[in-house]
Amino acid sequence: MSLSQNPLLQDFDLPPFSTIKAEHVEPAIDQLLAESRTKIAALLAQSQAFNWDNLVLPMDEMAARLGQAWGPVSHLNAVCNSQVLREAHEACLPKLSEFWTELGQNKQLFNAYQSIANSAVSEQLNVAQRKVLEHELRDFRLSGIDLPTDKQQRYAEIQKQLSELSSRFSNNLLDATQAWTKHITDAAALAGVPESAMAQMAQAAAAKALEGWLITLEFPSYYAIVTYADDRALREEVYTAYSTRASEQGPNAAQFDNTEVIIQTLSLRQELAELLGYANYSELSLATKMAESTEQVMVFLNDLAKRSKPFAERDLSELRQYAAEQGCTDLQSWDLAYYSEKLREQRYSISEETIRQYFPIDKVLGGMFELVERLFAIQIHEEQEFEHWHPDVRLFTISEHGQPIGRFYFDLYARANKRGGAWMDGARDRFRNSENELVLPVAYLVCNFTPAVGEHPALLTHDEVTTLFHEFGHGLHHMLTRVEQLGVSGINGVPWDAVELPSQFMENWCWEPDGLALIAEHYQNKEKLPQDLLDKMLAARNFQSGMIMVRQLEFSLFDFELHSSHGDGRSVLEVLDSVRQRVAVMTPPTWNRFANSFGHIFAGGYAAGYYSYKWAEVLSADAFARFEEEGILNPQVGQAFRNTVLAKGGSYEPLELFIEFRGRAPETDALLRHSGLTGQVA
Hints:
alpha+beta, 4 domains, Neurolysin, domain 3, five-stranded mixed sheet, single chain
């Protein structure tokens, strides 16, 4: 195939997924990188003074063109992974890393941006344009623009290696997850497992031409076993396989062990921080975040831990007592979900299996769309004809006043060769190009829910409903922006510890009666959620919220301390153990290798930034409190939230936007109240 026929090099509205092949990837990226280098040289050679239109905008268009080709490849590698695509993806990672580092260390380009910022013309730029320039100059410095040549070269080598290590971590985790299965032929072994989960396991077995049921380490299957299986030995076996994935303790350890990947990653991040003049990687991470210092982050996390731990200790004490009454006097990690669900059923006469019958996927989606249509004065409709990467994928358009303003894909269900977890990624960013055309945003929204089985629709647990709202919140942030400058449009340029604000904000409606009335309906008889069941759900909202809070704080403190203290002689496990001794109320087995599957910090954007979830949750809970005060479905408040937090993207500091919306600085009271962590522990 000639380059002119390569689909990744064509102009397209939405990616032509059916025609993109692994062999297209490297030739397309090679050509675009060569064209980009030529373009940059031409821009820098022009004789007139640099300004927005003759430098910044053409650079943005160049980045958008490269992203248009690379974005679908990166996405397909995550949702339809194959060996040939993986190899093509990995072949391009060092080339892209080298290009972006080269760009960040281009002194002539830096001087050109600096000349715009220092010139009189900058006074005519709008707020978003000035913020873009501010971020660009900051990022040049964080790319080593001020370093001597030998250290710039070392910086480039480190970035290249980190890119490759991140990909290797992700691949190892995916492969380790898929490498383990357990085939069951006796239904009695699955006693206690809900019929819907067994049907999904039967479907998984049939897909491999097996009789009976197939347990996998994909989350819906894992969750069903550890939460419902009466067979304690089976729970232990599945828990063990899941919690030792991609480690020296796990199955196929020699092939998929992430231990050395983690060690190398941490060492390179520390070296990178020191090259740039920071004491450690946590300090470097905060250079682009809301938090002002590592001390501020640690005080924030430790204060929350101090407030939450007594509630967590009470939760665990109650669970131990209940389990002992059921005959389990030595509660272990593989028993937690099982006895927690049993205790919840006893205390509130409620079960997840009953609840999920009221959350069929189409009702949840329709209700969620109706909610945001009311709040933000938009309309959402589904498209029928489009290119997709899997038959389950759906595409929707968001409109305002009859005009499209964005689109989003939903890929909702777990399957083989798909990365675990849930995420939003930008398929395209909103910006106004040099032809004065407004490029509209497109988002990928990806989850790993239990798929439909047989004639029944996909039924979501309430946790899955919350996850859906969370990711849709990210999508709204990306799509409802009104900013027309690429660098601060949507989530671009938003500090990482504020980017979770819209996502966690959206979760609140999953607990509001007015919100639940829109999204809940029995999948068979279409009855609304009964009042008694709603009351039980709301009563159970903060069940074990103390344990949940300290678990998240454990992740946050481990991540931040790991990146603050690398080189002090402690191993990764020793750092984790230290955090658990201070925060956790129940310590997992010594062979648990949680860190080896912690993709957020080793294969995602959350390194020294996992605290962002709790940091932003303070903002989101306090922002939602205004709706509690002025009306849960109040469209005026909805518009105020859209016009500040959602519309302005990264063009303003997030604290400014919060204060504009709320009328004051954020307070932690709403978060603690929503989590039931107020008052005295009895």
